[in-house]
Amino acid sequence: MDWSGRIALSAYRAAGYAVTPLTPLLVAIRSARGKEVRARRGERYGKSKLKRPLGPLVWVHAASVGETNAVMPLLEQIVEMGTNVLLTTTTVTSAQVAEQRLPKGAFHQFVPFDTMPFVRRFLDHWMPDLALFVESEMWPNIMSELNHRDVPLIVVNGRMSERSFERWSRFPFAVREMFGNVPLCLTQSEEDGQRYAQLGVSHVEVTGNLKFDVPPPAADEAELTALRAAIGARPVWIAASTHPGEERVLAQAHRRMAALLPNILTIMVPRHPERGEELEKELSGIVKRVQRRSQDPALKPDTSIYLCDTLGELGLLYRLSRIAFLGGSLIPHGGQNPIEPARLGCTILHGPNTQNFADIYNALDAAGGAECLYAERDLIQALSRMFASPADVHRRSELARHALHPFAGALDRTVMALTPFLNPLKINAELQRSGNGADNGH
Q1: What's the predicted TM-score (pTM) here?
Q2: Contact, 224 vs 297, CB < 8 A?
């Protein structure tokens, strides 16, 4: 008997009950930091101001902006079948994306904290007929409660890192509780599929990454024109989704490059924009001028590092340079997603830690559209070569774009795999609509 798993799950649930009285304080702190919407705090407790719509309901849960954007085309197809969709997310920014992009027939709520009283209140209210969890979202209480209520849970665009697999493998009882009613798991890669299967998921299919079928992020044309004019002929590169431990290395590389190219511009986009103020102080001791976009958006001619501590602007910023360094890769984080910059015509630079998106980086490297760097010296050498040969940068950016073509088609494969689960809901919705129509006619 897996006593360690039982004890771990019981301890997790007990901790949830213990901290429940402190949840309002936690939410208040998060609200003060801009991580919660004050007017919608009740949703985090499983409460809702919205009524459950009549008919079948598919609950889709995505963590943040990337997952929300990736699943949006799938939501649109489900809604077109006549089935209501509830999308839950965790972050404020993902809620803003949902508000802008959700089709009619779909609506957004914040996911409740994974504490049993909140989870049960949420499920009692919404009563979903089917749950789709996106990528690597695994919440023990929510998943086990869905299992006990016999609500099918399907993992879509599934991703599981080696670290997560090793952690969950230690608790087979907890995994059985969570995945007991998972009839299907649709994963991004063979490696992801193997890890889910080894955890005991009975039916795993590799359908690919939905992010390849999402249109590239848009950009405000007026803002793009203004920034391009402000940059002019300056050599420019972007360091995107950077993490602590990387920015100093990137700033030092900028300083050394400035000895060769005095007017070089580095656009730096931290993964967590709230670090803007501390980064400005740190980097100002390394380069001549750091300009924070959140405080002063109009790019100045003497700016060394344009620190873009803003949200939702990567579609704009990637269009300003053909050279993009992807963060989270010089430190043991696993790398950030290179799909967007590659599709927008960037040559990709990255560190050696890319295991989160290993298959994509391997394809980009093999095609010549990306390059792996191990140290500051490698970055300086790569930038020097690229600024000296714009034609080669253009060629490599095209190679990066073409390297992604074989990955397309995940949306069609996902919809096909979900059809046996969605069709009964569609038929049920049509029957309810026709029944309501008949009742209204008498």
Answers
A1: 0.82
A2: no
